Amino acid sequence: MVHHRIDKELGDFANKNLSTAKNAVFSVATILLVLIGAAQNGHSVNATAESPNADSVFYRINASIQSMQNQFWNKNLAWLRKRKKKLARLKCYLAVDETHDSYTGRLHKKPLKELTAEQRTTRQYIHKYQPKAGDTGSFKYLVFALVYGNKKRVLRIKAIRRKESYWLFVAQTLKELYQEVKFESALLDRGFYVAELVHQLQQNKTPFLIRAQLCDTMKKIYGIYQRWMMYKYQLADWLPTTLVLGKDWRNRQWGFIANLEVKQLEELRYLYSKRWNIENVFKATDGIQLRVATSNHKTRMFAVCLSFLMYNAWQAKNNRPTLLDYVKHLFEEFLKQIFRICSYRHRLKLNLPLWGFIQN
After folding, report:
1. I need a labelling partner for 81 at 20 to 30 A (CA). Which of 97, 153, 264, 312 fits?
2. Whether the predicted model's global pTM rises above the 0.85 cut
């Protein structure tokens, strides 16, 4: 069997976010075993980590949300700069979307003054939206992904607090990315149909395509016909922009706001379909993300970043296997390395069926 090398970016990220200080028994190797055991069995860390327990495992994740976000961002900026000439030869698109991580724990519904500082911080990151039945809320992340050729790469992640306005952050990030790679367009869904964002993108001269929210007033004024039409649309007194309305061959109604030049307006519908690449990224990473039951926003962020790092490492391979096979190889390499360096492995009490496999 050909063993896949553990991607350097994964190692760098883990080293910077896990303390290397040892106590009497446990080290980074042990923590990785607990994380891998949870992922392999589809369990939460709480269910897998009998000794050490989940608290002692994640006590060692000592990085802040901001530092993890910055490390992820800076690593991908370096990647873009290294491959600038290669990317210039490809048609690139930038997809932006939000993803939610299910939360099934308890919510702190008391008045803010009755909560501890930790509880107040936790509540800031738990949103009311419930992605799945049985959820009590969710953690929300803003994700920027580059689509280049037949590959995709997550470039930036931001943990979103409740009621946080992040339109300027989106515009600024797209501006910085456009300086690194001249993408054809930034693709955004109806959740980003916001006047402030459109105005900022226009000021920054960033190419964009945003799906418009079709309201009854808009339909009454303009009408939506089989023939695609372009209008100068006034979102606000100070914001003239281009609105494109039409129907596809299935008679579905579409509306877009864009600053792109196309030969035929129908091309915008085809271009927008590339935004589904980011939905495919979310679907893939959801299957390999560590299932943590904690409400600690830093732990959640670490698990999300780790899944996107694995996805990026997999996408970087030219003759890549399936994502599941790649992650299995990755875990196998982790475990074999840990087996070699972990001199006190006989003292570990972990629910880890793969341990016997590695010993043989």
Report:
1. 97
2. no
